[in-house]
Amino acid sequence: MEHGNRSMVKEFVLLGLSQAREVQLFLFSLFLLFYSLILPGNILIIVTIRSDPRLGSPMYFFLANLAFLDICYCSVTPPKMLADFFYNSNTISYRGCMAQLFFLHWLGGSEVFLLLGMAIDRYVAICHPLHYASVVSRPICSTMMVLFWCLGFVHSIIQVILIVPLPFCGPNKLDNFFCDITQIVKLACTDTYDLEFFMFINSGLSALISFTLLIISYMILLVKVRMGSKEGKSKAASTCVTHIIIVVVMFGPAIFMYCRPFQDSPVDKLVAIFHSTVFPLLNPMIYTLRNKEIKHAMRKLLSKHRLLDWTGLV
User: Fold this and answer.
1) Handedness of CA 65, 48, 41, 212 (dihedral sign)
2) Would you call 174 helix, strand, or coil by DSSP?
3) Domain containing 305 — which CATH number?
4) Domain assignment of residue 205, yes or no
5) What is the span of the domain harbouring residue 143?
6) Which of 57, 104, 138, 285, by CA, is between 20 and 30 Å from 178?
7) Closest by CA position to 288, among listed 306, 268, 302, 267
8) pLDDT of residue 102
9) What element of type H or E holds 262?
10) Nearest-angstrom CA–CA distance, 106 and 139
11) How many domains in the chain?
């Protein structure tokens, strides 16, 4: 039963959202619908951006990477959750739990840094348009993406390194449908006050600071756009508003979960569901509905494939 020399817990029990079989099957159908919409929506964004030369600007490069991150993020907890609902299972191994925690924070941290990069991109485009092509070039964008992934990795691996040595010698029930630091730490058979405080700084406070900086920066950019010339004003303002919506939708649940001193709340599970399953679905919908260029490129791509299918049938 031992894990290393100190831990005696080989698996954790996920209490999930409900123990009633009827409710589990209903939730399975509901979340399977959400999940089946997330993947095609994000894949369509990536394919559209890569196939249309007019969408070759850094803004769309970052958007395609954001969609890819959403696909990866939605592949961490929803598949396990759906399998648990379908097979009426509620356990996860110790290693599986640590893997969930690692990938959630790696991908989530990378996405936070990507949103910061997208804000920098909009700042250069609006405030220094003459230098935009040279400052935000494709090689620089690619380097930034590698940096974002590396920073997200560092953010996540620090937490895993601190959690793995903890002794888990008894309680193993997690009142959720996935593993996360806010509940794992509380199961340790030792005093975790200092660790909880560090986790609060590493996840909660950093998310709050990033959110504040992003909102302030976009508000300043909106003021700058309104004070500038009319040419391109509407498009730039619409892009900033879209980014603000994405920032609020992503950071809102994260701040709620990690900015509290690891206290339980009746709405924790609802917020976790929104953050891990519903939020990635909103990203492609928001960008698609608010961006005329993407909508036009998607219609062109879909029409082309329908024509090819029709020609092939004929």
Assistant:
1) positive
2) strand
3) 1.20.1070.10
4) yes
5) 11-313
6) 285
7) 302
8) 94
9) none
10) 23
11) 1
Residue 101 lies in a domain: yes
Distance between CA atoms of 192 and 163, rounded to whole angstroms? 10
- Using one digit for the tens of pLDDT, what is the confidence trace for 170-219? 788 888 888 888 888 888 888 888 888 888 888 888 889 999 999 999 99
The predicted structure's pLDDT at residue 5: 43
Q: Considering only CA atoms, which of 245, 253, 196 is closest in space to residue 218?
A: 245
Q: What is the DSSP letter of 129?
A: G
Q: Hey, which residues does 174 pair with through a beta bridge?
A: 14
User: Which residue type is seen at 94?
Assistant: Y
Residue 5 included in any domain: no
**Residue 28 region, left (φ>0) first, then alpha (ψ -120 to 50), else beta?**
alpha
User: What is the Cα Rg of the chain in Å?
Assistant: 22
How far is it, in rounded angstroms, from Cα 147 to Cα 159? 19
Q: Is 43 exposed, middle or buried (0-12, 13-18, 19+ CB in 10 A)?
A: middle
* pLDDT value at residue 4: 43
Task: Please report how many Cα atoms fall inside a 13 Å half-sphere around the Cα of residue 251, on the Cβ side.
Answer: 23
Cα distances (Å, whole numbers) of residue 264 to 176, 256, 273, 291:
11, 11, 15, 39
| Residue ranges with strand state E in the chain | 11-14, 91-93, 173-174
> 173 in helix, strand or coil?
strand
Judge whether 82 and 273 are in contact, CB under 8 Å.
no
Burial (0-12, 13-18, 19+ Cβ within 10 Å), 269: middle
Measured in residues, the chain has a length of 314
pLDDT score recorded for residue 262: 63
Q: Report how far residue 296's alpha carbon sits from residue 48's, in angstroms, rounded to the nearest whole number.
A: 10
Treating both helix axes as pointing N-terminal to C-terminal, what angle do 138-163 and 94-127 enclose, rounded to 10 degrees?
150
Torsion of CA 218, 221, 223, 228, to 10 degrees: -160
Q: Considering the domain boundaries, does residue 2 fall inside one?
A: no
